[in-house]
Each structure stands twice: as C-alpha cells, then as structure tokens.
Amino acid sequence: MKKVDHIGIAVRSMEEALDYYIHTVGLELLGIEEVPSQQVKVAFLDAGNIKLELLEPTNEDSAVAKFISKRGEGIHHVAFGVSDIRSRMAELKEKGVQLLSENPKPGAGGAEVAFLHPKSSFGVLYELCDKSGKGDK
Ligand code: CMX
Question: Whole-model pTM?
Fold first, then answer.
C-alpha cells in the first residue's frame, strides 16, 4: 500500500456537510462529482497529507444509504492508494481476504477502486484506490 489516500465520510446532506467543513473547519474544496457505479455524490476536501471524501447517497439502494440508516453518519471507509490494483487484489485474495468484487470498478476522479469486506479487516471497510496515470488529486 502506498499511503492512505482518503477517508470516506457518509453524510445525509452534502450541502450541509460542505458548509461545515469549508466554513467552520476551514478545509478547501477540491471538487464534487457523481459516481454512478457507487450510487453516491462525492466531494473531496484537502486535509493536508490526505483528503476527506464526503459521500452522499444518490438513492436508497446505495451502500452509503444503507450504512447511514443502520449506523448513522460518520466514518465509512479508509482508502489506500495503490498501483497495479489487480495484482493487489489477487495478492489479498490469495491471503484469504474477502474482496467485495472480482474486478475493480470505476471510482471518483477516474480511479479504479475495490473494497475489502469489513469482516476480513477487523471491522473497517477498506478501499484500494488506483489512480495510475490519473495524477494524484
Ligand atoms: N464499515 C464497517 N463495517 C460496515 C460498513 C462500513 N462501512 N458497512 C457495513 N458494515 C458492517 C455491518 O455493520 C455488518 O456488521 P454486523 O454483521 O456486525 O452487523 C456487516 O458489515 C455486513 O453488513 P450488511 O449490512 O449485512 O451488509 P451491507 O448490505 O450493508 O453491505 C458492504 C456492507 C460493506 C458489503 C457494502 O457496503 C459494500 O459492498 N461496500 C462497498 C462499496 C461501497 O461502500 N461504496 C460506497 C463508497 C463509494 C466511494 O467511495 O466512491
């Protein structure tokens, strides 16, 4: 794993959360986009060495909508920046880690992403995030 790229935070209202993070906490907004494959709208904030990713569900079937309804708003996942995501996935699978998909999926900013089941990772949902060739935003 190269480094923690970002921490995902589930929010009910992107507008209200952004107001807090930008105007109260004082973080800079890097960008907002919709990620249809994950059924979320996301906003990235510059938090120094890493980014915070606010996640607002775009429909009630979204993994993030389920998370909020069961556990409330808050920290949803930790994302490791990786290169060669397919090799990483194969390596982890070989070691018995439960991955949530066979192949990477398109994520925010043109990245390829894959998730490790929290049951395999001591209660933490981890994302592998590969931005090879996409810059390091
Ligand atoms: N962090 C830690 N534990 C979590 C979790 C999370 N984010 N989401 C669910 N869990 C736990 C549940 O609490 C539950 O634990 P218990 O059995 O002890 O109650 C267990 O995992 C299984 O949860 P579930 O409710 O039965 O299953 P879900 O249908 O909610 O699915 C998960 C959970 C992780 C498989 C699903 O959320 C998933 O596939 N996530 C990957 C994709 C994703 O999260 N996308 C959104 C982010 C997109 C982005 O960053 O762009």
Answer: 0.95
